[in-house]
Amino acid sequence: VQLQASGGGSVQVGDSLRLSCVASQRTFSDLVMGWFRQGPGKEREVVAAISNSGLGTYYSDSVKGRFNISRDNAKDTTYLQMNNLKPEDTAVYYCAARQTSFYSRDYRASTYRYWGQGTQVTVSS
Is it the case that residue 5 has pLDDT exceeding 80? Predict the structure, then answer.
């Protein structure tokens, strides 16, 4: 599975961005998708995850209420809508995929097998 992330950029505090991640997998609907980020000098952390059907979602506390993860299985694409961006959201954002169950409630990076290249998000005050 190859993943291609896009949509990053430089924005101001309070702005919005939408990241996209396109997968090469023919059976995209078999994949649990996740978004991660890694800020300067920080470890990679989970931001959000979505079940293969799209019915289940998970958000880290730091983005809950501001970010929304979604997917379009017809387009083999998952999205991360980021609203009310803050300087602490500055990071390289990665999309990832796995075939294990979303409902294991384990969203760590180590549970994902496939990774896309990162896309930089910079939020300035």
Answer: yes
